[in-house]
Each structure stands twice: as structure tokens, then as C-alpha cells.
Amino acid sequence: MKIRYLLILLIPLNSIAQETQEEYSFSMEEAIKFGLENNYSAINAKKDIQIALKQKWEIIAQGLPQISATADYQNYLKQPVTLLPAEITGGEPGTFTPVTFGTQQNVNATATWNQLIFDGSYIVGIQSAKTLLQISENAKTKTNLQVKEAVINAYGNVLLAEENVAILKKNVENVQQNYDETNEIYKSGLAEQEDVEQLEITLLSLKNNLSKSMRMLDIAYEMFNLTLGIPVDTPVILTEELEKLAIQYFDLQLLRKDIPIEENIDYRIAANTAESRQIEVKLEKAKALPSLSGFLNYGVQGFSQEFTFLNEDQEYFGQSILGVSLNIPIFSSGMRNARTQQKEIAYEQALIELQRTENEIKRQINSAKSDYEFSLENYLVQKKNLELAQRIENKNQIKFFEGLASSFELSEAQRQLYQAQQNYLQSMLNVITAKVELENLLDTSKYKNED
């Protein structure tokens, strides 16, 4: 009975879970926006900025007042004994009298105010805080561009896989019909067995490709979900079509666009690295400067034979100290100089890397423009090839059933058509991926604080 009641309870719960399973629907722009907010790398990059902001305040706070307090309670279970010459208390000379000093219990509480007055390292640290934040913000901008590219590529791969499955299903249906008709003609003695077998080879190959493509479609959806930052088994609907999307990404104006290399995100990141190395040089030099700090101390002490420190009549004795501390580096046997020279060499390396990055970005932009231009040309060529391949296959199919073409000729025309279909699908995806790669290189956007 208990098992039956448990099953009755579980069935509606399972039904509710199925009804409330979340489903997503995305256009390309919606997918990009969703990915920028929920992609795992994008989330972590945003948290890196939050860490940098906390580090910035940590550096600033080092020069602000620091207050600390201590409290000590001591209970001498066995008080220490001190020996005094006996003649002090009227005893025999040469002997000692044991005595104890102080009370058995005491309390000591102290509060200290520390203030940095001057430190060259702190001044350089303040300068580095801004650079530290810029590094995190530029890293976030770079991550956003990478996420955008990943989302577009994943979206395009899903559309490609869907189109591929749809085309293969249609091809299987057409070849299956041809195979059935040819097989009936063969049974009537009006066709050769080779014609049937040739079509069967084509049919089996198409079915095998269809099975593989359906698996690839599932993988493409999982990769898309992972890129957006949602569970891989969550149902997703894409509202765009591959061909319409390729037309939207057909932009000849983009080939004529140029930007100052200094605005490229990779150049800005390299420049941040060089600036950071320069600050490290300043920091090492600042360590040779004197540092000055001050402190104010105030404390109270209480003494008693028993624990009476919470009583109103307990007497406490106060004490206070005001002081300054001056630290002057004089001689380090060349250690500071060696460290400074190391940082200067690292700074020179960063400048060389910045120059290399500048040339590399120029090369990447030129290469991306060339790839995008070729993808546009190739798209038009493959579209024309597909139209020709379709006409050739239709003609050969008519000739085959009229007895004017062999099964081998029909098979070759079909294979040519299938290859043209794949090439056309891939050319559309190439237009999309090549454009986003070029757009990222030409992107000059900067991080904007969203909070």
C-alpha cells in the first residue's frame, strides 16, 4: 500500500517537472545578448573586474589610518618569586628573602592608530591601481568579443546542421523513390540489375550520412547551449535561417573600414602590459626613498588579587604614546639596483612585444579582410554551382528513366549535386564566421560599467 501511494504522489510531481521545463528561443542578436550575460567566461571576466576594484581600494587603504586594538588578561596561578638581600628587611647579611611583586591577576587593553605619512612605494601603488583596473576591463572587453564570436559560430553550426539534415532527408526521399521505381521496372525486365544496385549504393550512403548528420545536430545544439551558459539538455529553438543570415552578413562596406591600431583590443592589452612593467620600474626606484609613518597609542591597565575587573570601583591606570618612525635605505650592496635593472629589462621586452603586436594586428586585419572577401565571392560561386548541379541532376534523372542515360551517369550527377549542396551550406557559414572575425579585429569598443 505504501509503495502504491508513493507512486501516486510521484506521477503528478513528474508531470509538473515536465510542464515547467524551461525552453529558450533565440534570434542571432538575442543569442549574443544572452551569451554576453550568461556565458561562463563572461561571468568570470566580470568578477575579475570586481576583484580589481577591491584590489584598487586595498592599495588606497594602505595610506589611510589603520586602527588596531589588543586586550590581554593574565592570571598567575603561581606567581614568580624574586629574591632580595635579607639585610634590606633586617635579616642576616648574605642571605635572601623571597618576595613576589604585583597582583595575581591583571588586565591590559591597548588601542593604536597608525598613519603612513610618506612612502614612495605607496605613491607608485596608487598609480598602478588605475592600470590594474584597465587591465581587467580590457580583459572583459576581449572576453566579450570572444564570446560574441563563439555564439555566432555555434549558432551558425546549428543552422548548418539543421539544413544538412533537411537536405539529406529530401535526398533520401528522392533516391528512395527512384530506387523503388527502378526496382519495379527491373522486375518487369525493362531495366538491368546494375541500375538497381547503383541506386541502392547511393541510397545506403545517403542514409548513413543522414544518421551521422543527425548525431552531429545533437552535438551542435549541446555546444550552442554550453556557449550560452545553459544546461546542454535544455530545449532550444533558433528562429533564424542560414541563407537569410548569410545575406545579412554580406557587407562589402566592411572591407573598406579601417581603425587606428591603437584602438584594437589586443594592442590595448599589450599596452597595458608595457605600462604595468613601467610602473614596476618606478616601484623599485621608489623603494630607495625614505618612508615616514606615525602612530598614536593609548592603553589602560588594571590589577587585582581576584577577578574584579568588571566592578564599578575597579581602578584602571592609563598610558599613551605618540611617535614617528623614519626609515632611510642607505646601502643594499647593489641589491636594489639589480632589481631595478631587472624591471627595466622587462619593460624593454614589453615595448618590443607591443611593437610585435602592432605588426601582428595589421597582418591579422589584412588576412581577415582577404578571407571575408573570398567568402563572399565563394558564396556567389557555390550558389551558382548548386543551381547548375540541380539542373544537371534533373536532366540525368529524366534521361535515365527514358533510357537515354546509364545508372552510373545518374549516380555521378547525384554525387555532384550532393557535393554542391554541402559546399553551398559551408559557404554560407563561412560568410558569417569570416565577418565576425573581421568585425572583432576592427572593434574599438571599450568596457562600460554596467552597475
Structure description:
By secondary structure, this protein is α+β, with helices and mostly antiparallel strands. The protein has a single domain (23-72, 119-302, 334-442), classed as Outer membrane efflux proteins (OEP), CATH 1.20.1600.10. The chain contains nine helices and eight strands. It has helices spanning 2-19, 28-38, 40-61, 120-187, 193-228, 242-248, 265-286, 335-401, 407-442, and strands spanning 24-26, 66-75, 82-85, 96-99, 105-119, 236-238, 291-304, 316-327. A four-stranded antiparallel sheet has the order 2-5-7-8. Strands 1-6 form a two-stranded parallel ribbon. The longest helix has 68 residues, at 120-187. The radius of gyration is 40 Å and the shape is elongated. The two termini are 57 Å apart.
Outline of the structure:
By secondary structure, this protein is an alpha+beta fold.
How many discrete structural domains? 1
CATH architecture: Up-down Bundle
Mean pLDDT: 89
The CATH homologous superfamily is called: Outer membrane efflux proteins (OEP)
The total of beta strands comes to 8
Q: Shape from CA axes?
A: elongated
Radius of gyration: 40 Å
Q: Helix coverage percent of residues?
A: 55-70%
Q: Which fold does the CATH topology refer to?
A: Outer membrane efflux proteins (OEP)
Number of helices: 9
- CATH class wording: Mainly Alpha
Question: What structural class do the secondary elements suggest?
Answer: alpha+beta
Strand order of the largest sheet: 2-5-7-8
> What fraction of the residues are assigned to beta strands by DSSP?
5-15%
Low-confidence stretches: 1-20
